[in-house]
Amino acid sequence: MPAAPTVAVIVLAAGAGTRMKSSLPKPLHPVCGTPMVMHVIGALADIPPAVTVVVVGHGAEQMRDVVAGAAPDWAHVRFAHQREQRGTGHATVIGLNAIDGGSEASAVDVDMVMVVPGDTPLLRARTLAALVDAATAPGMSAAVLMSTLDDPTGYGRVVRDGRGEVVRIVEHRDATDDERAIREWNAGVYVVRRDLLHDALARTNTDNAQGEYYLTDVIAVLAARGHRVAAVYAAADEVAGVNDPAQLAAAEAAMIQRTTP
Asked: How far is it, in rounded angstroms, from Cα 16 to Cα 169?
């Protein structure tokens, strides 16, 4: 029986979260008394990661203090600082540098890298473990978590070719009318082979509506080079991100419902 793949996790937690209208860094807003980012780290338990890099930016010192004080030992948490907000692709490069050691710690040799947003507190451990399984299945090089909605306005769409293979993800504001009609949307969680990720990121650019480096562009780079990408479905309420007080309240209500016998 082959050995289980070793996995590093990059948690994207650098954003300012301006729509929260709060001085508290967005990933530290509590859901049922626990910061959102700690719910995300807790959901890694079934993997478990060889190292977890939390990419911080806004409120970096406060983020470090809270996460370092609450993270379980098995998560092997370290931090990376994204001083300029240049997109999720840029944040992932900073996270990869921390996996490779940077100036603060020794390098960690892993097979796969998972990237997950720090503002998705309802993610389940079994879902993230299934994403790793899909990415490491025979013939696969990566996997993306997705869901479906009748109206996924605002979300990136998962684009497939005529054979049903995932070939790219297009952000809503960059999508054509036909692409906006796609109901499958990107949940923002990825697992990619470590030996492919850095080169794929280097091939992305800022030619998009935001002028940022999109992590989503990695999927198109991989597919164009003949690498297969799996898509794993999760319920929309599980993968919903939190961007404002109303969504935070909805996440709290969903968590209460989930944990009430």
From this structure: 24
